[in-house]
Amino acid sequence: MADDTSGAIVGADGGQAVERPAAETGYQPLIEPKTGIGEILAPVAGFGVTLSSMFRPTVTEQYPYERVPTKPRYHGRHQLNRYADGLEKCIGCELCAWACPADAIYVEGGDNSADAQFSPGERYGRVYQINYLRCIFCGLCIEACPTRALTMTNEFELAGPTRAGLIFEKADLLAPLQAGMLAAPHPMVGGTTDTDYYRGEVTGPEPEQVDWVRQHRPDDPTLPDSASTGSRTTTAERGRTR
Fold first, then answer.
1. Sheet of 105-111, strands arranged across
2. Per-residue pLDDT, 81
3. E strand or H helix at 130
4. Best label site of 22, 99, 149, 222, fewest CB within 10 Å?
5. What is the DSSP-derived secondary structure letter of residue 190?
């Protein structure tokens, strides 16, 4: 037996319908039925978009000679982001890999240490791979990331001559270092926790971090000429700037 919209019960064998009041069926249509001209034109209303497009001029993009900018929220190549002092945002939790419907992401987490601090907290992404032969650019991985470490850029030119070249490693995905950032590994800003980093309270490396990098990697190209860099914004300072 099956209900129709009128409240009648129709048998599976096409037998006689038994009328029931609409109040008994519990069905209340939310869309007002069309009347008059709207009822007459309803069968062809679905062609409205097609008919309006028929009279628009045809636009052909001359790619690759003319590159048209993508939309701001276009899902392109992935990027692993950094904090303002250069530490990586990825904590190696593998949630992005679990969320991927195409099994395109592979992550191995590692433990931070005093001599090798790559991200705030205890863990970092030691191995990070994205297989762009499988990726469907759905964006579910960036929704699953708890630290906003993984985002998607507007880069879409990912074709290559080999299959191996389309498996991007962590070095291919890491965001470039901005001015003032120190390349990881290096210690966290003194007196902070990973929560301070997540809240955006770290605005740049402190002199102690610069000194640590200068001592352990004196030839690091990200070392500034002086130690007068940004520091963590304290709660009192944030209150004064509001």
1. 105-111, 123-131, 167-168
2. 97
3. strand 123-131
4. 22
5. T
Q: Which amino acid is at 95?
A: L
How far apart are alpha carbons 80 and 89 in whole angstroms?
7
The residue with tokens 């940004």 is: 230
14: left (phi over 0), alpha (psi -120 to 50) or beta: left
What's the half-sphere exposure (Cβ side, CA atoms, 13 Å) at 238?
Answer: 10
Q: Is the pLDDT assigned to residue 236 strictly greater than 90?
A: no
CA distance 69 to 137: 18
Enter the tokens of residue 8.
Answer: 């009648």
Residue type at 240? R
Structure tokens at 50: 């097609």
Of 15-19, 35-39, 160-164, give the range with the top mean pLDDT.
160-164
Instruction: Report CA Rg, the chain.
Output: 29
Q: Is 153 left (phi over 0), alpha (psi -120 to 50) or beta?
A: beta
Cβ–Cβ < 8 Å for 134, 166: no
Query: What is the rounded distance in angstroms from the CA atom of residue 158 to the CA atom of residue 160?
Result: 7
pTM of the model: 0.71
Q: Which 3-state string (H, E, C) describes 143-154?
A: HHCCCCCEEECC
* Helix (H), strand (E) at residue 238: helix 235-241
